[in-house]
UniProtKB/TrEMBL annotation:
This is Purine nucleoside phosphorylase. Pfam families: Cu-oxidase_4. Belongs to the purine nucleoside phosphorylase YfiH/LACC1 family. GO terms for molecular function: copper ion binding; hydrolase activity; S-methyl-5-thioadenosine phosphorylase activity. Keywords: Hydrolase, Metal-binding, Transferase, Zinc. The keyword Protease does not apply. It comes from the Bacteria. The keyword Acyltransferase does not apply. InterPro entries: Cu_polyphenol_OxRdtase (IPR003730), Cu_polyphenol_OxRdtase_sf (IPR038371), Cytotoxic_necrot_fac-like_cat (IPR011324). It catalyses: adenosine + H2O + H(+) = inosine + NH4(+); adenosine + phosphate = alpha-D-ribose 1-phosphate + adenine; inosine + phosphate = alpha-D-ribose 1-phosphate + hypoxanthine; S-methyl-5'-thioadenosine + phosphate = 5-(methylsulfanyl)-alpha-D-ribose 1-phosphate + adenine.
Amino acid sequence: MVNEISEHLLLSDNKQLLFFKNNFHLSGITTNLFGDTSYQNLEQEQELNLTLSRSFSAISYHKLEVKHQDEIIVLNKNSYSEANYHQADGLIAFGKNHFKMLLCNTGDCPIVILTDPSRELQAIIHSGWRGCRLSITRKAILKICEVGFEAEDLIATVWPGIDFEHYIFGEKDGANFPGHYFNNRLNLQSVINEQLLRSGLRPEHIQIPNISSASHNYVTGLAFRSFRLRREMERNMVFLFNNACVY
């Protein structure tokens, strides 16, 4: 069971999963109550990955081991049936009904999810400040459009990561983001939104929930890991699965 907590967000009854409300795919993020999905304890990390994927009947999962760069991997059909880890910052999968879940750990970095109404596309992109500087989201959209998709048909949902108020950022690197850097703070959400729009997505197809890795709601118990704010080494995990719905 899930509970609607805002226009775009649903929270599981056990408060372990926060879902991004979208009619075309199942996606969301684990909360701190789900457990630590970082690579500090590999046995626990793999167990949690399997727990999540099996709870939605996914036959396999594919997880990014992020490099904070702009490499994007397109999964081939031969890799769908086994769990795999990919040293890259983007994963793209084409085709229907392969029952695979895409995963990516995050502390503060935004994670961009791209799908389309035909459910023929799944993409998950790790886009921290380095990825934003390298325009990784735009590069992923170009790869998607190369095989025949139209940018204006794509649906984007963004786990926003750390918010502008809490993201203190150096002036030297901030100069790479004109219009998004003010008072020693960087607005990664607006950077990504601009990249999505410039890539051809419709504004109404872009969903960026009003929540942050700095959030800690003592009433609902909703909390996330933040390396920047609290120097936490633990991680939450963003997930994407096309073949299920929770509402």
